[in-house]
Amino acid sequence: MLIEIRKKPFNAYAEMQYYLDSLDITGKYGATANFVGSMRDFNDDKKVTHMTLEHYPGMTEKHLETIAKESIEKWKLLDVLILHRIGKINIGEDIVLVATWSAHRKDAFESCRAIMEQLKSGAPFWKKEETNSGAKWVEKNTPGY
Amino acid sequence: MQISVKYFASLREVIGEANTVIEIEEGTSVSSLWQTIMERKNIEFDNVMMAVNMEYVKSEHQLKTGDEVAFFPPVTGG
Protein backbone atom coordinates (compact mmCIF):
# COMPACT_ATOMS: atom_id res chain seq x y z
CA MET A 1 0.00 0.00 0.00
CA LEU A 2 1.31 3.44 -0.87
CA ILE A 3 -0.30 6.79 -0.17
CA GLU A 4 1.45 9.98 -1.18
CA ILE A 5 0.62 13.65 -1.38
CA ARG A 6 2.69 15.20 -4.16
CA LYS A 7 3.65 18.82 -4.72
CA LYS A 8 5.12 18.18 -8.16
CA PRO A 9 3.26 16.97 -11.27
CA PHE A 10 3.15 13.22 -11.88
CA ASN A 11 2.18 10.95 -14.74
CA ALA A 12 -0.45 8.64 -13.25
CA TYR A 13 0.11 5.76 -15.66
CA ALA A 14 3.88 5.84 -15.28
CA GLU A 15 3.48 5.94 -11.49
CA MET A 16 1.12 2.97 -11.57
CA GLN A 17 3.59 0.90 -13.60
CA TYR A 18 6.52 2.01 -11.45
CA TYR A 19 4.67 1.00 -8.28
CA LEU A 20 3.51 -2.32 -9.74
CA ASP A 21 7.11 -3.13 -10.72
CA SER A 22 8.13 -2.64 -7.06
CA LEU A 23 5.57 -5.21 -5.86
CA ASP A 24 5.92 -8.95 -5.75
CA ILE A 25 2.42 -9.89 -6.90
CA THR A 26 3.07 -11.22 -10.39
CA GLY A 27 0.93 -14.30 -10.91
CA LYS A 28 -1.23 -13.35 -7.93
CA TYR A 29 -3.23 -10.49 -9.43
CA GLY A 30 -5.61 -10.96 -12.30
CA ALA A 31 -7.26 -7.55 -12.18
CA THR A 32 -6.07 -3.96 -12.05
CA ALA A 33 -8.51 -1.07 -11.78
CA ASN A 34 -7.61 2.59 -11.73
CA PHE A 35 -9.11 6.03 -11.63
CA VAL A 36 -7.21 9.11 -12.78
CA GLY A 37 -8.60 12.58 -12.18
CA SER A 38 -7.06 15.33 -14.31
CA MET A 39 -7.29 19.10 -14.49
CA ARG A 40 -9.94 20.48 -16.86
CA ASP A 41 -9.95 23.93 -18.42
CA PHE A 42 -13.59 24.55 -17.50
CA ASN A 43 -16.05 24.24 -14.64
CA ASP A 44 -19.71 25.28 -14.50
CA ASP A 45 -19.38 26.81 -18.01
CA LYS A 46 -16.48 29.01 -16.89
CA LYS A 47 -12.97 28.90 -18.26
CA VAL A 48 -10.49 27.83 -15.60
CA THR A 49 -6.83 28.83 -16.01
CA HIS A 50 -5.33 26.85 -13.11
CA MET A 51 -6.15 25.64 -9.64
CA THR A 52 -4.60 25.52 -6.18
CA LEU A 53 -5.15 22.47 -3.99
CA GLU A 54 -4.82 22.70 -0.24
CA HIS A 55 -4.80 19.86 2.29
CA TYR A 56 -4.58 19.27 6.04
CA PRO A 57 -1.07 17.84 6.54
CA GLY A 58 -1.30 14.79 8.77
CA MET A 59 -5.05 14.32 8.70
CA THR A 60 -5.26 13.89 4.93
CA GLU A 61 -2.66 11.12 4.92
CA LYS A 62 -4.21 9.47 7.97
CA HIS A 63 -7.69 9.55 6.44
CA LEU A 64 -6.52 8.07 3.13
CA GLU A 65 -4.61 5.37 4.98
CA THR A 66 -7.74 4.35 6.87
CA ILE A 67 -9.78 4.20 3.64
CA ALA A 68 -7.09 2.09 1.95
CA LYS A 69 -6.67 -0.31 4.87
CA GLU A 70 -10.42 -0.84 5.21
CA SER A 71 -10.70 -1.47 1.47
CA ILE A 72 -7.86 -3.99 1.45
CA GLU A 73 -9.72 -5.93 4.13
CA LYS A 74 -13.20 -5.58 2.65
CA TRP A 75 -12.29 -6.53 -0.93
CA LYS A 76 -9.28 -8.76 -0.26
CA LEU A 77 -7.01 -6.54 -2.32
CA LEU A 78 -3.41 -7.42 -3.08
CA ASP A 79 -2.42 -3.77 -3.11
CA VAL A 80 -3.60 -0.16 -3.29
CA LEU A 81 -1.92 2.98 -4.61
CA ILE A 82 -3.26 6.48 -3.94
CA LEU A 83 -1.48 9.61 -5.17
CA HIS A 84 -2.88 13.12 -4.83
CA ARG A 85 -1.53 16.48 -5.92
CA ILE A 86 -1.45 19.66 -3.86
CA GLY A 87 -0.27 23.17 -4.73
CA LYS A 88 -0.65 24.88 -8.09
CA ILE A 89 -2.12 22.62 -10.76
CA ASN A 90 -2.10 23.44 -14.45
CA ILE A 91 -4.49 22.34 -17.18
CA GLY A 92 -4.02 18.71 -18.18
CA GLU A 93 -2.04 17.70 -15.09
CA ASP A 94 -3.11 14.65 -13.11
CA ILE A 95 -4.71 15.45 -9.76
CA VAL A 96 -5.45 12.03 -8.32
CA LEU A 97 -4.66 8.39 -8.96
CA VAL A 98 -6.34 5.44 -7.28
CA ALA A 99 -5.22 1.97 -8.35
CA THR A 100 -6.26 -1.39 -6.92
CA TRP A 101 -5.03 -4.90 -7.59
CA SER A 102 -6.95 -8.10 -6.87
CA ALA A 103 -7.29 -11.66 -8.09
CA HIS A 104 -10.59 -11.01 -9.88
CA ARG A 105 -12.18 -7.93 -11.50
CA LYS A 106 -15.13 -7.55 -9.09
CA ASP A 107 -12.93 -6.62 -6.14
CA ALA A 108 -10.64 -4.34 -8.15
CA PHE A 109 -13.51 -2.45 -9.84
CA GLU A 110 -15.66 -2.05 -6.74
CA SER A 111 -12.86 -1.05 -4.39
CA CYS A 112 -11.37 1.50 -6.80
CA ARG A 113 -14.76 3.20 -7.16
CA ALA A 114 -15.43 3.09 -3.42
CA ILE A 115 -12.01 4.47 -2.48
CA MET A 116 -12.43 7.33 -4.93
CA GLU A 117 -15.89 8.21 -3.61
CA GLN A 118 -14.68 8.10 0.00
CA LEU A 119 -11.72 10.29 -0.91
CA LYS A 120 -14.06 12.82 -2.55
CA SER A 121 -16.44 12.96 0.39
CA GLY A 122 -14.02 12.78 3.32
CA ALA A 123 -10.35 13.40 2.58
CA PRO A 124 -9.44 16.95 3.61
CA PHE A 125 -8.52 18.60 0.31
CA TRP A 126 -9.87 21.89 -1.01
CA LYS A 127 -9.75 23.29 -4.53
CA LYS A 128 -9.49 26.94 -5.41
CA GLU A 129 -10.05 27.63 -9.09
CA GLU A 130 -8.58 30.58 -10.93
CA THR A 131 -10.83 31.86 -13.69
CA ASN A 132 -10.67 34.93 -15.92
CA SER A 133 -13.06 36.62 -13.50
CA GLY A 134 -11.03 35.82 -10.36
CA ALA A 135 -10.36 33.03 -7.88
CA LYS A 136 -13.12 30.93 -6.35
CA TRP A 137 -13.19 28.06 -3.84
CA VAL A 138 -14.98 25.01 -5.18
CA GLU A 139 -17.92 24.53 -2.82
CA LYS A 140 -19.04 20.98 -3.60
CA ASN A 141 -18.26 17.94 -5.66
CA THR A 142 -20.29 16.67 -8.58
CA PRO A 143 -22.12 13.43 -7.68
CA GLY A 144 -20.14 10.26 -8.41
CA TYR A 145 -23.15 7.99 -8.75
CA MET B 1 -7.54 24.71 29.48
CA GLN B 2 -5.92 25.56 26.20
CA ILE B 3 -6.56 23.93 22.85
CA SER B 4 -5.10 24.52 19.46
CA VAL B 5 -7.48 25.43 16.64
CA LYS B 6 -6.83 25.29 12.91
CA TYR B 7 -8.88 26.64 10.01
CA PHE B 8 -8.60 25.65 6.37
CA ALA B 9 -9.48 26.88 2.89
CA SER B 10 -12.35 29.38 2.57
CA LEU B 11 -12.98 29.28 6.31
CA ARG B 12 -9.39 30.37 7.02
CA GLU B 13 -9.94 33.35 4.73
CA VAL B 14 -13.24 34.25 6.41
CA ILE B 15 -11.71 33.98 9.90
CA GLY B 16 -8.49 35.72 8.89
CA GLU B 17 -6.06 33.30 10.55
CA ALA B 18 -4.86 29.72 10.07
CA ASN B 19 -4.03 28.76 13.68
CA THR B 20 -4.86 30.00 17.12
CA VAL B 21 -4.90 28.87 20.73
CA ILE B 22 -8.19 29.22 22.59
CA GLU B 23 -8.92 29.01 26.31
CA ILE B 24 -12.04 26.95 27.08
CA GLU B 25 -13.50 25.01 29.97
CA GLU B 26 -12.76 21.30 30.21
CA GLY B 27 -15.55 19.25 28.65
CA THR B 28 -16.69 21.95 26.22
CA SER B 29 -18.17 20.33 23.12
CA VAL B 30 -16.65 20.96 19.73
CA SER B 31 -19.92 22.48 18.46
CA SER B 32 -20.08 24.81 21.43
CA LEU B 33 -16.53 25.93 20.68
CA TRP B 34 -17.56 26.57 17.08
CA GLN B 35 -20.52 28.70 18.24
CA THR B 36 -18.17 30.73 20.44
CA ILE B 37 -15.76 31.27 17.55
CA MET B 38 -18.57 32.37 15.20
CA GLU B 39 -19.83 34.84 17.80
CA ARG B 40 -16.37 36.24 18.54
CA LYS B 41 -15.53 36.61 14.86
CA ASN B 42 -19.05 37.73 13.99
CA ILE B 43 -19.39 35.27 11.14
CA GLU B 44 -21.92 32.79 9.81
CA PHE B 45 -20.64 29.65 8.11
CA ASP B 46 -22.85 26.77 7.00
CA ASN B 47 -21.80 23.14 6.69
CA VAL B 48 -18.64 23.37 8.76
CA MET B 49 -16.74 20.09 9.18
CA MET B 50 -15.04 19.36 12.51
CA ALA B 51 -12.05 17.22 13.39
CA VAL B 52 -10.26 16.60 16.68
CA ASN B 53 -6.71 15.27 16.65
CA MET B 54 -7.06 14.66 12.92
CA GLU B 55 -10.21 12.57 13.08
CA TYR B 56 -13.79 13.54 12.29
CA VAL B 57 -15.93 13.85 15.41
CA LYS B 58 -19.60 14.35 16.18
CA SER B 59 -20.71 17.81 17.24
CA GLU B 60 -21.21 16.72 20.88
CA HIS B 61 -17.60 15.48 21.18
CA GLN B 62 -16.07 16.83 24.39
CA LEU B 63 -12.68 18.53 24.21
CA LYS B 64 -9.74 17.98 26.54
CA THR B 65 -6.42 19.70 27.23
CA GLY B 66 -3.98 19.65 24.36
CA ASP B 67 -6.53 18.71 21.67
CA GLU B 68 -5.96 19.94 18.14
CA VAL B 69 -9.31 21.02 16.75
CA ALA B 70 -9.83 21.79 13.06
CA PHE B 71 -12.76 23.50 11.37
CA PHE B 72 -13.12 23.49 7.62
CA PRO B 73 -15.60 23.69 4.72
CA PRO B 74 -16.87 20.60 2.85
CA VAL B 75 -13.94 18.86 1.18
CA THR B 76 -13.46 19.06 -2.59
CA GLY B 77 -10.45 16.92 -3.48
CA GLY B 78 -10.04 14.31 -6.18
Describe the structure.
The complex is a heterodimer of chains A (145) and B (78). Chain A has 3 helices and 9 strands, in the order E-H-E-E-E-H-E-E-E-H-E-E. Chain A is of the alpha+beta class and 145 residues long. Chain A has one domain (2-137): Aldehyde Oxidoreductase, domain 3, CATH 3.90.1170.40. In chain A, the strands form 2 sheets. In chain A, strands 3, 4, 6, 8 and 9 form a 5-stranded antiparallel beta sheet that branches. A 4-stranded mixed beta sheet of chain A has the order 1-5-7-2, sandwiched between helices. Chain B is of the alpha+beta class. Chain B is globular and about 35 Å long. In chain B, 26% of the residues are buried. Chain B has helices at 9-15, 30-41, and strands at residues 2-7, 19-23, 49-52, 55-56, 68-72. Chain B has a 5-stranded mixed beta sheet. The interface between A and B is medium-sized, with 28 and 17 residues.
Give me some keywords for this one.
heterodimer; A: 145 residues; alpha+beta; Aldehyde Oxidoreductase, domain 3; five-stranded antiparallel β-sheet; four-stranded mixed β-sheet; 3 helices; 32% helix; B: 78 residues; Ubiquitin-like (UB roll); five-stranded mixed β-sheet
Explain the layout of strands and helices.
The complex is a heterodimer of chains A (145) and B (78).
Chain A: E1 2-6, H1 12-22, E2 31-38, E3 42-43, E4 46-55, H2 59-75, E5 79-85, E6 87-90, E7 94-102, H3 105-122, E8 125-131, E9 134-137
Parallel strand pairs in A: 1-5
Antiparallel strand pairs in A: 2-7, 3-4, 4-6, 4-8, 5-7, 8-9
Helix pairs in contact in A: 2-3
Chain B: E1 2-7, H1 9-15, E2 19-23, H2 30-41, E3 49-52, E4 55-56, E5 68-72
